[in-house]
Amino acid sequence: MLLNRLRSFAAALAVTTALAAPVLAAVYGEWGVPLEDMDTAVKPGDDFYMYVNGGWDKRVEIPADRSGYSDGTDIQQRAETDLHEIAESAKTAEPGTLLRKVGDFYASYMDEAAIEKAGLTPLQPTLDAINAIATPADLAKAFADAVIGFGISPFGMYTEADAKKPTAYAVYIYQSGLGLPDRDYYLEDTEENLKYRAAYKAYIEQIFTLAGIADAKVKAEAVYDLELKIAKIHWPAEETRDALKTYNPYSEADLAKESPDFDWPAFLAAADLSKVPNIIVGEKSSIFEMAKLAKSEPLDTWKAYLTFHALDGAAPYLTKAFDDAQFAFNGKTMSGQETQRDRWKRALDIIDENMGEAMGEAYVAKRFPPESKAMMAEMVANLKTALGQMVDEAEWLDPSTKTEAHKKLDLMAVKIGYPDKWRDYTALEIAAGDPVGNILRARRFEWTRNTARIEGPVDKTDWGMTPPTVNAYFNPVNNEIVFPAGILQPPYFDPTADMAVNYGATGATIGHEISHGFDDQGRKYDETGALRDWWTEKDAAAYEAQAKMLVEQFNQYEPLPGVKINGELTLGENIADLAGLAIAYRAYHIALGGKDAPVINGMTGDQRFFLGYAMSWRTKVRDARLRARLASDPHSPAYNRVNGIVRNFGPWYDAFSVPADAKLSLPDASRVKLW
To answer: What is the pLDDT of residues 248-272, one digit of tens each?
Structure first.
């Protein structure tokens, strides 16, 4: 197999000609990994995560105002300092300019005295509209208003390229409507879930009471009981990942005909989506059953539900009593945070969420020089070359499948750092003294921007993340990988660090996103982004057999007592982690140009590569937040994204001379080998 043919550490030692050790001045440690953050008392083959990160884990505490902490948090904090300076100076910028809009948005949220004085008045039009619901059409309109503004509805909705015709847009409708993180919080009677349910009911009652709504306890029980009915209808999280099961195209007329219990035309009209050419229904049975609930449940119950969620959604922009109540439930109870984050930091989050590209250009100018973009482009090119070689060497793939895979890889678009075309916010009205109105107008602005182009060509220049975001993504219908400037910062990406560390950290991240195009769901899309089966039956069966092994492995990991990882839910991300590591390792050796890496601090290039990978995942998270992630997050916990991955990768064993009796060791036949 391919992995057995990759150059091992032992072979590297046999070569006498090596690169000279470079002069490095990394931001983290001399060459990218602070040695004091390791715990060399731990054997790498027993617990590689703690071998690399044990010292860090012992000294780092989660800040009281956060539910978790990682190196990404450091990057976010640096970004907060940069953006804070921009926002403060923007308050006195020339009226009518984009920068002044940022300043007015910021000032509106920071003026707590004005917010206290306004009370519920800014939200009253929304509450009055809900209270006036009298017909099924009114209810349908209110559901659409909740999707666009404050609150939630049983049906989520967004516009995106049609997965079977990616040159045109479609409207996607998916299951939604729950206030707790996942259906299992309502359905599984664990001790923790019973605690969360009681706290949630008390929170609903508290919000009603703060709003001066009569019969708060009775209404809270009614809202919870309605959500319980919704939860019983919902698909499990792992089933919502299926790209084929969740692609169910309808016209508006056919949707209304098959699901007559809900006024779909009124719902779509309220969202400015009347007569759209194509509607994609996701979790079909769930959505149509919830449509029946819209008819069978009393309007008063739905009105209570919509009222609570409107108040809950607007709580951060209302008086201190509402803001504190929401933090006590969502922050403390559900995420384990001890204290609320500083208000100015929350203000920056709000601006980033609602008009993030307005500050993105200034952030990029400070934190992402052209040299970094050029280095990233070279790294991406090496990674794509690496995967191309691995596809060619995959003995289990037929020539026809290899040809299709190369088409997809060759046409995969790459976006690095920031958009080529910045978003135009001219039509967005921002007022210095109206935080609730600013949020509503910003959300309506973005919704209108998306719906206005529904009948036009797909805009491939659009970004789904803002430049300061510490994250990355693969978009299957655009066949593109996207890396905002935020994630391309030290220690994840450091131009002054050792190349091995950069390939182990950022290289593996790039490889992860590239390989999403070939994970268990991404592989179902072709080079144009269309859902099309381009695999031979034999190749698909071989792929699925390896994927099943990975599911079974991750099903055994237990991050919290009694709570195991859902291997089906996390399969796509686990595949991308494993493939991304393998691709990055091959790309690193391509970058070496046939020469051996220098030995630094007694560590070989391969060792530093794997150290960079493990360091990039060092994370601490509170139990309450981890529990929520295990229920609904398709990503495995960081600890398992290291140990659960490296144990499947042959070169890691070679680099650290991992013995067969080490705790992480797997026999070769039990290791997952997709690429």
So the answer is: 999 999 999 999 999 999 999 999 9
Could you give the 3-state DSSP secondary structure of residue 492? coil
| Count of beta carbons in the 10 Å neighbourhood of residue 266 | 21
Residue 586 phi, psi dihedral angles, 5° rounding: -65, -45
Per the CB < 8 A criterion, the answer to whether 635 and 346 are in contact is: no
Instruction: Write down the pLDDT at residue 22.
Output: 60
CATH code, 136-317: 1.10.1380.10
Biggest alpha carbon–alpha carbon distance for the chain: 83
pLDDT value, residue 10: 30
Residue 217 and residue 618: Cα distance in Å, rounded? 43
**Residue 672's pLDDT band (boundaries 50, 70, 90)?**
very high
Percent of the chain residues topping a pLDDT of 90 = 94
pLDDT, residue 121, reads 97
Contact assessment for residue 529 and residue 160, using Cβ atoms and an 8 Å cutoff: no
Contact predicate 617/509, CB 8 Å: no
CATH 3.40.50.620 fits 2-61+377-413+488-670, yes or no: no
Total-model pTM: 0.92
CB atoms within 10 A of CB 564: 13
Within 327-434, residue ranges assigned H as helices are 334-335, 343-355, 357-367, 370-393, 399-411
- Rounded distance between C-alpha atoms, residue 457 and residue 527, angstroms: 18
pLDDT digits (tens, 9 = 90+) for 118-163: 999 999 999 999 999 999 999 999 999 999 999 999 999 999 999 9
What is the DSSP annotation of 611-652? HHHHHTT-EEE-HHHHHHHHHH-SSPPHHHHHHHHHTT-HHH
| Token couple for 584 | 């990055």
The domain locations on the chain are: 2-61+377-413+488-670, 136-317
3-state secondary structure of 531: strand
Give the separation between CA 217 and CA 275, rounded to whole angstroms: 42
Distance, CA of 370 to CA of 380 (rounded, Å): 15
